[in-house]
Amino acid sequence: MVFHFFRTIKEEKGNMMVESMVATTLIVVGILGIMSLLARSSNLSHYASHSFQATYLAAEGIEVVKNMLDTDISRGLEWGASMKGTPPFCIYYNTTGSGTSLPSCASSEQIAFNPSAGFFTGPTVGGLYRREVTIVQTGTAYDVVSTVKWKEGSDQKTVVLEDTFYPWRTR
């Protein structure tokens, strides 16, 4: 019986090495798969974050135009008195309507998060986002298109929001 046991071990010489190589290969493939999923998840998380921020910045562009129209009425100006200039406009959170021309965009103007202020400010160079607001008068209404662009890796991403404002208030 003892002789049979040693004979079996001698005949299976090298099988343990093959089994350990196969097991190691399976473990490495599994770990690489998990690492690939984690990297992809991280990229998608960054894209989702940038997309949400761009959507809010585009909405802010429309809200600033709405505020300018309301300010015109409250100051006793004509409906849309602040909507002058050549689009696209670079509108920031503190852009005010004063019956003068809106600022046109320079090709390098961008919006960046200002940590000391706690919000996005512009114009700046080196920011991630670029917002352009186009205002077109259609009869007495104003069609507003707010476009925010940013680079995600080598791809150019864009968020576009639109709204139409009608003169429902009178002086």
Task: Explain what you see.
The protein is α+β, with helices and mostly antiparallel strands and 171 residues long. The protein has helices at residues 2-11, 15-74, and strands spanning 110-114, 119-124, 129-138, 141-152, 155-165. Strands 3-4-5 form a three-stranded antiparallel sheet, with helices on one face. The mean pLDDT is 79.
**Count of the domains:** 1
Please tell me what the overall shape is.
Answer: rod-shaped
Mean pLDDT: 79
Strand content: 25-35%
Task: Quickly list its features.
single chain; 171 residues; alpha+beta; 3-stranded antiparallel β-sheet; 26% strand
Question: What would a concise description of this structure say?
Answer:
With 171 residues, the chain is an alpha+beta fold. The chain has 2 helices and 5 strands.
Tell me the layout of helices and strands.
Layout lengths: L1 H10 L3 H60 L35 E5 L4 E6 L4 E10 L2 E12 L2 E11 L6
Antiparallel strand pairs: 1-2, 3-4, 4-5
